[in-house]
Design a protein that fits this description.
Blueprint (H helix, E strand, L loop, with lengths): L1 H4 L4 E3 L5 E3 L9 H10 L22
Antiparallel strand pairs: 1-2
Amino acid sequence: MCYSVAPSLVECDEQGDPVVLLDPVPDTHRGDADRAVAVCPERALSLAYTAPPPVSEEPLR
């Protein structure tokens, strides 16, 4: 199920387990990743959202 919902993000290995292809998942694929997690019958996938790196307040030289 999860492979067919997001084939650019998840593929199936030889044992039938999901393999994540893009880690971290780009923001442009977040909706597909959410759908893949939602339909995964074995609940083998999950998403952990991380904070972006801090932005320096010093000007670039």
